[in-house]
Amino acid sequence: MIKILIADDHAIVREGLKQIVAEAGNMQVTGEAADAREMFALLEKDSWDVVVLDINMPGKSGLEALKEMQERYPQIPVLILSMYGEDQYGLRAIKAGAAGYLKKVSAPEELVNAIHKIVNGGKYISPELAEKLADTYRTEEKEFPHEALSDREYQIMCKIALGDSAEAIAEELCISIHTVYSYRNRILEKMKMKSNVELTRYAIRNKLIEG
């Protein structure tokens, strides 16, 4: 039996994933966490064959949690689950050590296959993401301004570009509004931009968000 730990802050999503997994017969969700803190507490107490990790959680983001897992539990493969497309987070997730990247809309059809492939030592990557990975190796690496951002800065940049207010970002990420503004100023400085409008145009042009 494949033991699965799911980390997602939405209980309804966890329940849906459990139902999908239950139909496979040879795998079971034996641990659930609503954030990274709960996930690491469970990892200390038991062992799992795979972790299904949401990229967008309050507190420590999925990418930050993934990097910590690579340091503390490198033997456990991680499948990143995301509502975002490959352009936004797929490359970052794979480069950070994820064994796979799956969009939530694809979970009903692909989750079981993805887990089987990962547990057997493979990588689960969509054709679209595989093409983007190939492009990064085929061509000389071109440095885009957003690649200089930390994972948290990148996450906040995408939310700003989507039009989320500082208050909404602060509440979702469990940080202060002052911290959000500090991140915003740092992002604008690193990307050599002056306004949210510039950030939004850049994000749309580079397909980091849906325009």
Short structural description:
This protein is an alpha/beta fold and 211 residues long.
Keywords:
single chain; five-stranded parallel beta sheet; alpha/beta; NreC/VraR/RcsB-like_REC; 5 strands; Arc Repressor Mutant, subunit A; Rossmann fold; 2 domains; Response regulator transcription factor; 211 residues
Secondary-structure arrangement, i.e. CATH architecture of the largest domain: 3-Layer(aba) Sandwich
Helix share bin: 40-55%
Strand elements, count: 5
| Coarse structural class | alpha/beta
Note the overall shape: globular
How many domains, as an integer?
2
Strand order of the largest sheet: 2-1-3-4-5
Q: Which band does the percent of strand residues land in? A: 5-15%
Largest sheet: 5 strands, parallel
Rg from alpha-carbon coordinates: 17 Å
Q: Regions with pLDDT < 50 over 5+ consecutive residues? A: none
Question: Which fold does the CATH topology of the largest domain refer to?
Answer: Rossmann fold
Mean pLDDT: 89
From the N-terminal CA to the C-terminal CA, the straight-line distance is 43 Å
Question: At the fourth CATH level, what is the homologous superfamily of the largest domain?
Answer: Response regulator
* Number of helical stretches of at least 4 residues: 10
Query: Mind telling me the CATH class of the largest domain?
Result: Alpha Beta
List SSEs in N-to-C order. Answer: EHEHEHEHEHHHHHH
